[in-house]
Model the fold of this input.
Amino acid sequence: MELGKTNDPEILEMFRKDKERREKMKQEPANIEELKEVLYTAGAEWRNSHFKENKKTGEIEILPIKPRAVADILLKYVKFAIIGRSERELEKAPLVFYDPGAGIYKNNERLIKGLIYSVERDLNIRQYKEVLNFLSVGARTKRPTKNKNLIVVGNGVYNKHTKTLEPFSPKYAFTTKVQTNYNQEATEPTFNGWRLSDWFKSLAQGDEHKERLLWQAIACTVNPNYTAEAAIFLVDEGQGRTGKSTFERLLQNITGEGNYSSLKIDEFENDFKLAHAFGSTLLIGDDNHPDNYNKRSDNFKSVLTGETILVNPKGIAPFSATFNCFVVQSMNGLPRFGDKSDALLRRIRVIEFNKQYPDTPEGRKIKQEYIKDKRLLEWCLKQALELDFDILEDTEESKRNIYDIKLDNDPVVYFVENYFGEITSDRIPVVFLFKYFLNTMTYENNPQTMKQNTFTRRLKPILEAKGWTYSRNNLAPGKYWNEEDKKLLAKYGAPFEDRTLEIDVKKKVPLFECSKKKKPLTGKKLKKQQN
Done:
């Protein structure tokens, strides 16, 4: 055999495979497995050029790759990033990497470990942590892509502005997606006479706004970059077969396995469970119990509004996160909240599932077969992508339910709804209103420890919406105060000191005045009241 030439098939095959690996390393990997293969080859090349030879024996010692070199190889072939909107967010944001197969950046510790050990499998725990540290320092910083016209779907990035499908690209800092493919030619399929659009009309029961809200829920689910700033609450009375769970499953099927997480209302305030849900397109809470009392809702509101949250998972360092997702909660009855502010309740849209469907083999096929069909999912996605709106529909049905939540959760609202109407005066001193409120709540077996200032602050917007105005110290009750109203205190069991409350009609005090006052009492009627 001449020097530099060989016909040995094994050697030729080795060179052929080596050439293929080198060619692949010049190409962009299409998925995680190809990326790992590139890293494995890069690690092998490093070892081939960094060996130690014993000059006496001629033995070759293969050297392990040190953490700094492992990180350098990874940073060369993997697009690592720290994503945040500000220096403060970047300081605590987690390390992510671009998954070329999914087309998004992922915060996945298991996958990052796989990439690291593809380069050097003999790293110990300390060395592994060193590599992570080098990667965190060397990763590029990126701002999250918040363009609501760009939506990551199963087969690319859909551009709502141009109505075209673009290829995946690491230039976009996306962290969530839906698995369903965009199909421009998709049409609505029919299954033995059943059509999804007809079913939505049946659920809406003739309310076009409710029907539109159902479609908007799908649109928000597939477009996490659109911050709806509201959650959908699916509610029935627990009778079953209302279609509620079928609608939930439809949303899950569109997003795809691994792109949604289960998270109930109270679990948003649990750091570990919230951290586990990070990176999901859809957060769906099934079977919230209506008797559960949700004392806090801070994280729940922050997730809805797209605000940054400090997440504190078990076993790893806390990090700042912005949840690009849509929230859907399911329950048998309306929830109870400790947060009584409009900041929470105006972010909720309630959809009632009132119609009960018969339990038939054909009905079971809807959930088990029809809403899993690829043709239906692609048509749903196409419909959702083509739907344009700025805010979620606030249906009359939803408004009614939100007011019921207020009644159940806010004693001041409940007081106004059930007791305020018994007052006949057109100028009502706050001191009387407060005592009346406390006694009616005790009468309801719901005693309150609220201070008068808090009561006044919470009462003010409620009464203003009903045509009353608040005067701090500019008006006296005068002729617009009806002394007969004091009897309401006795009616609801007020103690003696409250029943004898003195109202000085000439003294300027904090009071509420009706904007449509009745004529003041005069003559015999006024004298009768004063006596």
